[in-house]
Design a protein that fits this description.
The protein is mainly α and 78 residues long. It has one domain: Winged helix-like DNA-binding domain superfamily/Winged helix DNA-binding domain (Arc Repressor Mutant, subunit A), CATH 1.10.10. The chain has four helices and two strands; from the N terminus they run H-H-H-E-E-H. A two-stranded antiparallel ribbon has the order 1-2. The longest helix is centred in the C-terminal third of the chain and has 15 residues. The protein starts with 5 loop residues before the first helix and ends with a helix.
């Protein structure tokens, strides 16, 4: 079993939330436990990489988050 780094988990969450997703879809889409998901969503929201919409109760990747994904993909290609 391989362990994922914090950066890999962050990128997975940001990819799932590009079009806006609920917490349940993030949980399954990024293969996280509930505790991990809550912690990461709080951190990513505080850092401005994702934004929470109270109207439809979804999380969406911000432009800063999209930039993170692009930079992460470039780094992985190296």
């Amino acid at each position: 079993m391989t362990y994922r780094t914090r950066t890999e988990i962050t990128a997975a969450i940001l990819r799932v939330t590009v079009d806006g997703e609920t917490r349940t879809k993030i949980l399954y889409g990024a293969s996280l436990s509930y505790t991990q998901m809550v912690r990461y969503l709080a951190d990513l929201t505080a850092s401005g990489l994702i934004k929470y919409s109270k109207n439809d109760k979804t999380y969406r990747t911000t432009p800063k988050g999209l930039q993170f994904i692009a930079s992460y993909d470039k780094l992985i290609d190296l």
